[in-house]
């Protein structure tokens, strides 16, 4: 019992208190040293954070880049994970190791090299270049998660559906997706959050032209006051939450009747 | 109701010939029990017939149409696996209705139809349950309903009841056979157990090392097997080397010094009373054999017996296909 309380207090101190302070800070008109609590509150900092031209430009770019990354991740990782889960082929171990390399090698080292490569094919300093480079730190994880998902559900159920007359597409919608949903959910969230927090890759490959929130955030920290910074930080941490909600909503819409049965059980 | 012709079917996996020129035909509505130990290629044969594996050579014709270029989804063939493989996220009703869903049948129609088939297998009361709430036997019943609703021209059953306990297994077999007969479905039933094959099959075939040996009625194969593998799997009698002695022709008495070399000396290994008869495990010519003898015959373990038979009732067994041309 005592451990439970200690754990609760620990979590409170480590997570909720800083978050709470951040919220207070973002609404405080003035919160100087020796003041226990701010005396007056204002929406002014949120207004200036949200009306800053850099932030206004960065928000839609960030959202689109994140969704694009997640989408591309699935397009690439779904077939790859399936093959890695169900087929044996010559050089499979090599492929699996290669897939881990981007995670092991420092992102910046890859980014600098890629930037010069992208320069020569005209992808540098463009949003498409940034989108592509976001795949580096995300796809290995997505493939890994989906591969384990495929191994968990096995290939027999799909074969059974096939002999019952289900086309490739029907098998995907009726059998694979509903059963893979836990893995898809985890992979979407992880890929989204990783894409959101790429500072080095965005700045290097984007070359200051592609303004994602992660790229705006650091220069902001140097100049803006603490309350505006608090508002911006909160906004930044709300994005993954929003991402989660949107994906969950999409899954529910697409697989509503199929998910229902899972939840009932 | 469709007839099946399989002609010279071969399949290779990693350089090993899993199936070697398999040929057989099934009449419409015939239930063919395919016997053989594990690794003899039975399951591979079923997968080729279902379209889940592509044979390297040979042809499959079903109801007059060649199936060789048809995908698994398009073939009028349903394969039922050893595991029930019910879709875990669908209710039993949705599972049974799935084959209709893939054909674009309207929701209400397929739901009603699923109820009819669930009723047939005695599972209608559980229609809205999920598979995880069912026992192994119940799952297999639902799996059978799900296979039958598709009205397949050919139904393939891959040891579907092997994981059930013995009493339940025979209940299921009897009841599955009556359902298949009612629907007039042509079926291939794979098993490694002789009693299952005999209970289920109109005809029986024996597979061994990727080849199909003989196909015939259970009685004919039991009485007069022509090949070693058939004799081992089904033969009712004693096999001594390459000679098969039908049970009806076997003469047994205690070994005496008067016995000549025309018969065989056998030592009793163990005795077991079954169905009012004595099941004797013997060692004949270095190989273990089982033989049933009318119960009053008195004998003890370790005793020596003498087995003989009229020479014209003996069958010389072949080990390779093709040595007996009359079966072609």
Determine the oligomeric state from the structure.
heterodimer
Largest sheet of chain A: none
CATH architecture of the largest domain in chain B: 3-Layer(aba) Sandwich
Count of the domains of chain B: 2
CATH topology of the largest domain in chain B: Rossmann fold
Distance between the termini of chain B: 25 Å
Please tell me the overall pLDDT of chain A: 85
Report the CATH architecture of the largest domain in chain A: Orthogonal Bundle
Write down the Rg of chain A: 22 Å
Large-scale geometry of chain B: elongated
* Number of helical regions of chain B: 8
Please describe the biggest sheet of chain B, giving its number of strands, its sense, and whether it closes into a barrel. Answer: 6 strands, mixed
- Portion of residues in beta strands of chain A equals under 5%
* CATH third-level topology of the largest domain in chain A: MetI-like fold
């Amino acid at each position: 019992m005592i451990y439970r309380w200690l754990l609760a207090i620990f979590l409170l101190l480590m997570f909720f208190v800083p978050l709470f302070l951040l919220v207070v800070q973002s609404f405080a008109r003035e919160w100087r040293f020796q003041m226990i609590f701010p005396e007056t509150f204002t929406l002014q900092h949120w207004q200036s954070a949200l009306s800053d031209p850099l932030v206004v430009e960065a928000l839609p770019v960030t959202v689109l880049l994140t969704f694009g990354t997640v989408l591309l991740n699935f397009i690439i990782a779904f077939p790859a994970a399936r093959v890695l889960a169900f087929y044996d082929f010559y050089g499979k171990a090599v492929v699996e190791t290669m897939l881990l390399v981007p995670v092991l090698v420092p992102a910046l080292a890859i980014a600098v090299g890629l930037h010069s490569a992208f320069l020569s094919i005209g992808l540098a300093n463009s949003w498409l270049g940034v989108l592509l480079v976001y795949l580096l730190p995300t796809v290995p994880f997505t493939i890994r998660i989906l591969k384990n998902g495929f191994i968990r559900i096995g290939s027999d159920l799909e074969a059974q559906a096939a002999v019952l007359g289900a086309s490739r597409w029907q098998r995907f919608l009726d059998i694979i997706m509903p059963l893979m949903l836990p893995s898809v959910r985890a992979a979407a969230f992880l890929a989204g959050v990783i894409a959101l927090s790429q500072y080095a890759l965005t700045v290097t490959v984007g070359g200051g032209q592609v303004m994602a929130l992660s790229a705006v955030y650091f220069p902001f920290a140097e100049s803006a006051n603490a309350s505006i910074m608090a508002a911006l930080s909160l906004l930044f941490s709300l994005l993954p939450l929003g991402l989660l909600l949107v994906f969950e909503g999409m899954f529910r819409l697409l697989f509503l009747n199929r998910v229902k049965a899972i939840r009932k059980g | 109701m469709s007839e099946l012709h399989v002609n010279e079917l071969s399949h290779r996996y990693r350089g090993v010939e899993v199936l070697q020129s398999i040929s057989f035909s099934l009449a419409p509505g015939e239930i063919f029990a395919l016997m053989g130990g594990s690794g003899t290629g039975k399951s591979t044969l079923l997968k080729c017939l279902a379209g889940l594996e592509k044979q390297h050579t040979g042809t499959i014709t079903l109801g007059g149409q060649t199936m060789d270029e048809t995908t698994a989804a398009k073939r009028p063939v349903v394969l039922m696996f050893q595991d029930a493989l019910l879709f875990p996220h669908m209710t039993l009703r949705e599972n049974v209705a799935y084959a209709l869903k893939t054909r674009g049948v309207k929701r209400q129609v397929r739901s009603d139809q699923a109820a009819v088939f669930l009723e047939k297998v005695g599972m209608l009361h559980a229609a809205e349950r999920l598979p995880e709430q069912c026992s192994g036997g119940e799952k297999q019943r639902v799996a059978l309903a799900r296979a039958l609703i598709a009205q397949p021209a050919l139904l393939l059953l891959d040891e579907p009841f092997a994981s059930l306990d013995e009493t339940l297994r025979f209940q299921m077999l009897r009841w599955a056979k009556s359902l298949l007969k009612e629907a007039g479905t042509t079926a291939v039933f794979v098993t490694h157990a002789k009693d299952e094959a005999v209970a289920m099959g109109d005809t029986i075939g024996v597979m061994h090392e990727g080849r199909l040996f003989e196909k015939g009625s259970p009685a004919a194969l039991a009485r007069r097997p022509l090949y070693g593998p058939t004799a081992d799997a089904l033969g009712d009698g004693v096999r001594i080397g390459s000679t098969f002695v039908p049970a009806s022709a076997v003469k047994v008495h205690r070994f005496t010094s008067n016995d000549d070399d025309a018969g065989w000396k056998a030592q009793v290994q163990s005795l077991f009373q079954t169905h009012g008869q004595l099941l004797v495990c013997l060692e004949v010519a270095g190989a273990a054999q089982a033989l049933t003898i009318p119960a009053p015959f008195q004998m003890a373990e370790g005793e020596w017996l003498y087995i003989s038979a009229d020479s014209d009732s003996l069958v010389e067994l072949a080990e390779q296909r093709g040595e007996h041309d009359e079966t072609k």
